[in-house]
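job 3f2a | input accepted
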Amino acid sequence: MPRTTPPALAPGTMARLPQPDLPAGELRLRPWRPGDRAAVLTGYADPAIRRWHCRSMTDDEARDWIHTWPRRWQHETGAGWAIVDDSGVLGQISLRRLALADALAEVSYWVLPTARGRRIAPRALTALATWCFTTLGLHRIELAHSTANPASCRVAQRAAFTAEGTKRGEGWHADGWHDMHLHARLATDPPTGDPVPQPGHRRRPRT
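job 3f2a | predicted structure (207 res):
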């Protein structure tokens, strides 16, 4: 059935671009590499990550997970980045659902246990959203998390993702159905996310 409106973003809009490295102060978002497999295994062995992302990972599955991302970029079905600093991989952030015809994506992220407490996720999310709006041309980015996961709610708030409501019984987790909070940012929203510090800048410790 033909659409009565043209696609918001034409097919090939993302595939024709090289996947970029995205700066976020002392952090960087870069495409996954085969040598990152140990970090992926560590992430999906963490109880908190497994709880909210509802998956575990073997060594072979981690290898295959890394290898899927270039194909997903070319097929314009998703995109994944490792969040890194000079010490190595700290976490991941991805466009897990992508609909270019609607200029829409859903974002997902996690941070390794040893890197938590540094506001890594909101800074990575702010950097990715900026690129999605200014370069890729998305109109809307959504973020959904269990209502039992307040840490993810704080990430969304710090990255200026507006809370839009609760999707009842939308998330299937190991302990049953969870209500999910829905947050979103539009390209037309003010760019008021968690500020990205410049290299060499040190954040004031939180009290």
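job 3f2a | The longest helix spans residues 59-75.
job 3f2a | closed
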